[in-house]
Specification:
Blueprint: E1 10-13, H1 15-19, H2 24-34, H3 40-54, H4 60-70, H5 76-89, H6 97-108, E2 112-120, H7 121-131, E3 136-139, E4 141-144, E5 147-152, H8 160-173, E6 181-184, H9 190-193, E7 198-201, H10 206-215, H11 236-245
Parallel strand pairs: 1-2, 1-6, 2-3, 6-7
Antiparallel strand pairs: 4-5
């Protein structure tokens, strides 16, 4: 059942190469090297995994599982702090201007806006808060007594697993996927693009571009970096409060 006051329409946004103009994992790895928490060898290993993935020699889920397993034993508060600092110092500068404006346009229509990403909750949380959106569906790292276990909530939020996760979320939150949107760049996101009524390939890779053309889907190119962030539209409740209080409310 749909929660009172919540739209059944949701705009889902992929993160890497879509809402941000680069890859969050490589930005995070470079940041961790800059602050001395990983070695040059770790950087090269991460870049090698990414290269194999781009050459279709290693699938994204295999890369993700390896990276997550390497984090075993790390305190979650340390991971959270590093991701928040990385977002504030690095990732925020890669936000797509067109992507942020698309987020604000959906909010102005009263739609829910949710990140849908293979990134972890620690990467997605700062971005969700910064954009003041409704949350994230992503890979959720598991912990015991405050330490990462090197495992995550199944299924892995990538490819077919991403579709399973979004269908579960839609059922739990009263969302109509047939009326919803998904903005994504990779052919690996095809299962979710097929599940929504409004698939929107953004900066599509070669395989997704071919699929989009054959299916008559719109294709967008988002390249400009966001120089400023448009304010979040006021909700109906905030407008009413402003009208009857006679005082100005902060627009975030």
């Amino acid at each position: 059942m749909q929660p009172l006051g919540k739209s059944p329409i949701t705009a889902f946004f992929d993160v890497d190469e879509t809402l941000i103009t680069s890859n969050s994992a490589t930005i995070y790895a470079a940041y961790m090297a800059k602050i001395g928490k990983i070695s040059r060898r770790d950087i090269l290993r991460a870049l090698w995994f990414v290269t194999l993935h781009r050459m279709n020699r290693l699938d994204g889920e295999s890369v993700g599982r390896r990276m997550i397993a390497r984090g075993r034993g790390t305190p979650i508060e340390e991971v959270r702090a590093d991701c928040e600092n990385c977002f504030r110092e690095e990732l925020v500068h890669y936000l797509s201007d067109e992507g942020v404006r698309a987020v604000r346009a959906h909010q102005a229509e009263g739609h829910r806006v949710v990140l849908l990403s293979a990134s972890t909750q620690y990467v997605c949380e700062p971005l969700s808060k910064f954009l003041e959106i409704d949350g994230a569906i992503c890979n959720e790292l598991l912990d015991e007594e405050g330490l990462l276990t090197g495992t995550f909530r199944e299924p892995y939020c990538y490819g077919p697993g991403k579709r399973v996760r979004v269908e579960q979320w839609a059922s739990e939150h009263g969302v109509d996927l047939a009326r919803s949107y998904f903005y994504a760049d990779s052919v690996t996101d095809l299962p979710v693009l097929e599940a929504v009524g409004h698939p929107v390939p953004v900066n599509p890779d070669r395989e997704l571009l071919r699929e989009a053309r054959s299916r008559g889907w719109p294709r967008l190119r988002w390249r400009r970096l966001a120089r400023s962030i448009p304010p979040r539209p006021l909700s109906d409740t905030e407008r009413l409060m402003r009208q009857f209080s006679g005082r100005r409310l902060p627009e975030a």
